[in-house]
Amino acid sequence: MLKKKNVKLFIKTEVDTAKKNFRDPILMAAILGVLAVVFLFILWPLLKITRESLFFRGEFTFDNYFKIFRMSNTLEVLWNTIKLGLVVSVISTAVGFLFAYAAAYLKIKTKKLFNAIAILPMISPPFVIALSTILLFGRNGFITRGIFGMREANVYGFHGLTLVQTLTFFPVAYLLLVGLLKSIDPSVEEAARDLGASRWEVFKTITLPLMVPGLANAFLLVFIQSIADFSNPMVIGGNYTTLAVQIYLQGIGNYDMGGATALAVVLLMISITVFMVQKYYVDKKNYVTVTGKASRVRELIDTPAIVRPIYIMVLLISVFVGVLYALVPIGAFIKLWGIDYSFSLNHFKYVFDLGMKPIRDTTYLALMATPISGILAMIIAFLIVRKRFIGKGFVEMTTMMALAIPGTVIGLGYVLAYNTRPLVLTGTATILIIAFVMRSMPIGIRSGIASLKQIDPSIEEAASVLGASSAKVFTSVTIPMIRPAFFSGLVYTFVRSMTLVSTVIFLISARYNLLTAAIMSQIDVGKIGVASAYSTILIVIVAIVVWAMQFLLSKFGIDASDLERQE
Amino acid sequence: MKSPKRVLLRNLNKTFITSENNQVVAVNNIDLDILPGEFVTMLGPSGCGKTTTLRMIAGFEMPTEGEVFIGEEDVASKSPDKRDTAMVFQNYALFPHMNVYDNIAYGLKIQKRPKQEVQERVQRILTMMKMEDFAKRVPAQMSGGQQQRVSLARALVMEPGVLLFDEPLSNLDAKLRIHMRDEIRRIQKTVGITSIYVTHDQEEAMAISDKVVIMNNGNIEQAGSPQEIYQHPVNEFVANFIGRANILDAQIVSVEGNKGVISVYGIHYTVNLQKSYQPKDEVRVVIRPEGVIVGKEDYLVHVDKSIYMGNNHEYAVEFFGKLVEISESNPAGKRIYQTGESMNIGFDEDAIHVL
């Protein structure tokens, strides 16, 4: 009886909220719009992929799966992907922890520099590290050939890929771990010291055990990024093929959509599973929330025996990353890397002769996507945190899961879903902008949710009691209060869009070519200098726009440190 | 149980350098002698140096100058793990990844004590704290009060020469705070351990201590028993800091031994003198609000504020250009004066303390 009553009450509550929402047409429109966007551009493509993989000549069958696993190299590709993911995650987590420990525990002066170096790979085009690794260790590499005179140096493959992915993804681990380390209450460690534990014993019995969930978290997040990574394996993988690349080769290279979609489903399943484990198991285990806010500032360690070795390691890695970034613009001005190191503008001339189109297209599309993604992310964050509506769980879940969906998978999904009526979008600017928005929005939503949760809803209630409509409340109260999250979302969207590869590689056409694709094809044909020139231009554009955005933001009274906090 | 240790601070100084490169003296060359088994509270406003002093005794801060003796040993340069101290922290600082048993056993395990001994000692402490049923719980499953008991047990099990408390009760609610402070005092008396306790709550300090050390601006203003501190504060700061105080001008009329007659706005009182004075000396006197007698016909004053509190009645009256606070206990059946009315007051001679 009681249960029946509950069901009745539940239905009544839901109907009542729906009624309440209906009385507010703007809110209703926003909810319906968000539901449509999330369904059409995140879920529907995935459903199309799954459907395509399960049908062969119009019949339901598992043939596609049998077929790909009968192919000799599929298991190898699968193993390649997982092995790379495991190795890169372990090393990245270790390096990230080292950086985080140095930042949170040690008394060193160059922290800002280390911090900048650690964040650099997150905002740079994905090729930069791969490209400069080739410049250093490739067949004509400065170190391999220039210094050691090796003729047959082969950076392409597992080792090169491990190096490049580690340097690209360790910041993910760093940012997560530094936050956790800083929130450990120093008095917990002091208590251990006071009870007779030496520094090393404190680290072993307190700090490290407390960080286990965080380390697992970092490991899984890097793993998701590593197996989803398309551009690095494409550029520097050589014969070492991973799933993300294989999906592309199968679909675009061999025109085998059945096989490609089956592979995509396999990759998607791995990513989603790992993501679920991370989200619903590891994340819940965090101790830091238990110890609460740190009660006092940590006494930083200044014992040379501890500081020096860590400092040296962190410094070496930072210098190495710094050199890698410096190499690309340098490489762009070198006549023929590895053979003739004289200054030359040939590569830039070549780029300009080839045409400014990819540069113009990419910048234009990224600028279009930026406000759309920024505003949409804030609307969705607002609806999730503040409103009750049917489908809220679906929106929250899907947008969060979108973080774990590999770019190649969603790109393939767009090709399948939007090349036939009623929505023919393939090859248009629209689909590229949609891809940009969908790839950057989830991060914006997350930071929007985080900042909204900090704000007492009664402030918004006060506005609506004073007569503001829901749209007015949102624009006049909510957005101004969460503007750091909003603006960091804008910056992130632009950077991400300019540097996106995996999703859009399926969507570019003669009408719209993108910078990243141009860089990739130049590396592919061995024109490393031209690729460097393109990359340099890309970095310059990103730097100018980000700087201009920050300049504008400072006019609105938001300083850059707000943005950093959001990251 | 090991024997409790004496703690001796000699010329102890801690000077910090701020980010603007200014020097801030947190602890200003203090001397303090804490006897074995004594319960000493360091009390003062925030920033007075009490916590810094405690952290220098524990070893978390290095003194800029001076010596810290624990027992016979100068420990000033030793790290915290090498000192015979155990500390109870304000925010409990329990290890969140360990259950109660492992939290308490931690220090003993670090000392690599035999398993048997660890078990026995932890068990004994759990029994003493009446926490046997909590052994398997983790900190997140316990209330603040319970966590603080574990924190105390974790320190006590080490049988340290000195037990340190860093505002251990300030995160608890008022009722629990009183319960816990009685508990701490009971256990301290049972085991007879030297204890140094930092708090900014003067009532707590009065209730718990053998000796109260009042600190201000890095200096020790006064050290003494709770009665001494309350009844015979050495200066206005101490008088105002501990309890409420009316501080009034007076003159010495005559002196005879350690007794003297003083004049407070024309009315003569015979009082005890702590120091030697000459007739006609201008002095200041401290009179606690409960030392003012309503109805004694020494002065006629106007009532400025009148608040009924249940167990007592609080007045503020205009007294020669100053406000004097009065606390009349047990107001039932007594006449209540309203704001604006006149009333007669006088002072209880035993309650007048000449500074």
What is the topological layout?
The complex is a heterodimer of chains A (567) and B (355).
Chain A: H1 2-22, H2 25-54, E1 55-56, E2 59-60, H3 63-70, H4 72-105, H5 111-123, H6 127-137, H7 142-147, H8 158-183, H9 186-194, H10 199-228, H11 231-236, H12 243-253, H13 257-282, H14 288-291, H15 304-332, E3 334-336, E4 340-343, H16 346-354, H17 357-386, H18 392-401, H19 407-417, H20 429-453, H21 457-465, H22 470-481, H23 483-499, H24 515-524, H25 528-555, H26 560-566
Antiparallel strand pairs in A: 1-2, 3-4
Chain B: E1 7-17, E2 23-34, E3 39-43, H1 50-58, E4 65-70, E5 73-74, E6 85-88, H2 100-110, H3 115-128, H4 144-156, E7 162-166, H5 174-191, E8 194-199, H6 202-208, E9 211-216, E10 219-224, H7 226-231, H8 236-241, E11 246-256, E12 259-264, E13 267-272, E14 282-287, E15 292-308, E16 312-319, E17 322-329, E18 342-347, E19 352-354
Parallel strand pairs in B: 3-8, 3-9, 6-7, 7-8
Antiparallel strand pairs in B: 1-2, 1-4, 4-5, 9-10, 11-12, 11-14, 12-13, 14-19, 15-16, 15-18, 16-17
Helix pairs in contact in B: 2-3, 2-4
